[in-house]
Amino acid sequence: MITVLAGGVGAARFLRGLTRVVPAAQVTAVVNVGDDLERFGLRICPDLDSITYWLAGVVHPEQQWGRADERHVVAGELERFGHESWFTLGDRDLGVHLHRTMRLREGVPLSAATAEVTRAFEVEVQLLPATDDTVETRITTVDGRDLHFQEYWVRERAAPEVAGVRLAGAEAARPAPGVLEAIADAEVIVVAPSNPVVSIDTILAVPGIREALGHATAPVIGISPIIGGKVVRGMAHRLLPAIGAEVSAAGVAAHYGDLLDGMVIDTVDADQADRIEVPTRVTDTVMDDPDVAAALARTCLALAGDLTSDVPR
Ligand code: GDP
Ligand code: CA
C-alpha cells in the first residue's frame, strides 16, 4: 500500500501518474481540509474535489481544478441578489457540494461522505480527509487582519504580507478513521508536491499524524513543489518566506526536516542535491504530461526501494 500526503492540484497530478504504475486500489491519499470553506450554506472541500475530478478524468483541462464542460448559471443567479462571487462555483461542482452538505447535515462524517463521492465518480484511490473535525487554515496579515485561507488566497490573490499561518481547531481535531492505519501500514509514504505551508503542514497539524509518520516503518519520500525557485502554479512562493523557509527545493526539504527519508527534486535544481540531508533523486517533475507523472512515481518507488528491502517497485 502506498500512502500520499496530498494538497490539491500538484497532488492530483502526481496521483494520476502513480495510478499508472500501481493499482489505484493500493493507493490512499490523506488530503488537506484546511482550505475547506462554507459558501451559501454548502461545505466546499477544494483539495478533495480537485483530486476526485483529476482521477475521474473530469477536471477542467486548462483551469486544472473544477469540472470540464462547466456552466455557471447558479452563480449568475446568486449575483442577482448581490452575493459576492469571488469563489467560483460551477453548476456541476455544486452537485457535489449539495450531496456532501446534505450527508453532513444527516450526521455522516466527512470521510464517509467523501467515500460516497469518490464511489460515484468511480475513483478507486482511497481519499481520506486528514480529519473529520472542523479545522480551518487562518492567515494573519502584517496589516493586522485574520483571514480565512480562501479570503487571503482567492479573494485577495495572496497579495497581503503574511505574518502567520495557523490551523484553527487543530488542537481538538482527531485524524479521520483510517488515516493513522494508512500511515502505519504503508510500504511507501509520499509527500506530494503540494503547498508545504497550507497543504502539507496543515495535515501534519492534526494531532497524531506527525507522530504516526515518525513511527511508520515505510520510508517517507518528499517531492519538491518548487522548481527553479518558482512554483509550477499557485502562490506557494508567497507563503514559504512567511514561515522562514527558503523558496527552493532544498528549502522545502529543510522545512520538512526529519519527516523525510528521501527527496525527489527537479532536474533544473540538480545542483541543490548536495544541500539536502536525505538521499535525493533528480528527475523531471513537471507533470503536464501523465507519462512524466508516471516516471516520477517510479522514481519515488525506486528511491523508497533503495531505502528499504520490501517495497513494491
Ligand atoms: P492547490 O491545488 O492550490 O491546493 O495546491 P497544492 O497544494 O497542490 O500545491 C500547489 C503546489 O503544487 C505549487 O507549489 C506547485 O508548484 C506544485 N505543483 C503543481 N503541479 C506540479 C507539478 O507538476 N510538479 C511539481 N513538482 N509541483 C507541482
Ligand atoms: Ca488547496
Overview in brief:
By secondary structure, this protein is α/β, with parallel strands linked by helices.
Task: List the main descriptive attributes of the protein structure presented here.
313 residues, alpha/beta, Rossmann fold, 7-stranded parallel sheet, 3-stranded antiparallel sheet, 14 strands, binds guanosine-5'-diphosphate, binds calcium ion
Give a structural overview.
The chain is α/β, with parallel strands linked by helices and 313 residues long. The protein has 2 domains: 2-58 and 125-134 and 176-307, Rossmann fold (3-Layer(aba) Sandwich); 136-170, no CATH class. It has helices at 9-21, 46-56, 73-80, 91-105, 110-120, 149-155, 179-184, 196-204, 209-215, 236-239, 249-256, 290-307, and strands at 2-6, 27-31, 37-39, 42-44, 126-129, 136-141, 146-148, 162-168, 188-191, 220-223, 226-227, 230-231, 262-266, 280-283. The strands form 4 sheets. Strands 5-2-1-9-10-13-14 form a 7-stranded parallel beta sheet, sandwiched between helices. A 3-stranded antiparallel beta sheet has the order 7-6-8. The radius of gyration is 19 Å and the shape is globular. The N and C termini lie close together (12 Å). The site of calcium ion (CA) has 6 residues, from α2.
